[in-house]
Amino acid sequence: MKIIDISMPLHNKTAGWPGDTPFTFEVNWTKEQTGSVNVGKLEMSTHIGTHIDAPFHYDNEGKRVLQLELDRYIGKARVVDVSGKQQITPDDLLSVDLEEVERVLFKTKSWKDRTVFPENITYLSPNLPSFLAEKGVKLIGVDVPSVDPLDSKDLQAHHQLLANDIHILEGIVLDDVDEGIYELVALPLPLQDADGSPVRAILKTE
Q1: What is the pLDDT of residues 34-66, one digit of tens each?
Q2: In whole angstroms, what is the distance from residue 135 CA to residue 128 CA?
Q3: What is the pLDDT of residue 206?
Q4: What one-character DSSP code corresponds to residue 199?
Q5: How many structural domains comprise the chain?
Q6: How far apart are CA 116 and CA 203, in angstroms?
Q7: Which entry of 47, 51, 57, 158 is annotated as an active-site residue?
């Protein structure tokens, strides 16, 4: 078995949404101070790096992280290369076999430098979620910070994914991952009231 880490490393220079809480880590208590251990302190947004969106993120009545079904984040996933596209539409997937999987990960390669927050990204068309739902897809992942255009306020793709009961994984790293079927593990933290959660996302191959 091979494990491929598709998570963004989190450090004090990780690029987050402009204006959002940046990631910071510091050793709050040192071994010298405590006499036995180092203890770190984190401050971060729930939407920095590789993370999942809970529906509460964009819907006040939506589920929060601890209410989400964990089985969505574990299981067969197909990586699909859609690099070079401005948006992902059903036409881009007509030749892709989605019958074996409930999870689709889109390799867009549109976030070129992850030390800098992108100005433009490849995003999902609003009619893609219903197409995916008809194929039995329950989760989608993207290698960018959002499934919608970065300046979107109505978040059509987010809302259409929710309407079609498809969960959202954002900020994965697929640069060196080939198209194909893998086993995905991307579990959120048990953050009871949160609108999102960082994850350690991996792909497993036999």
Answers
A1: 999 999 999 999 999 999 999 999 999 999 999
A2: 11
A3: 74
A4: B
A5: 1
A6: 25
A7: 57
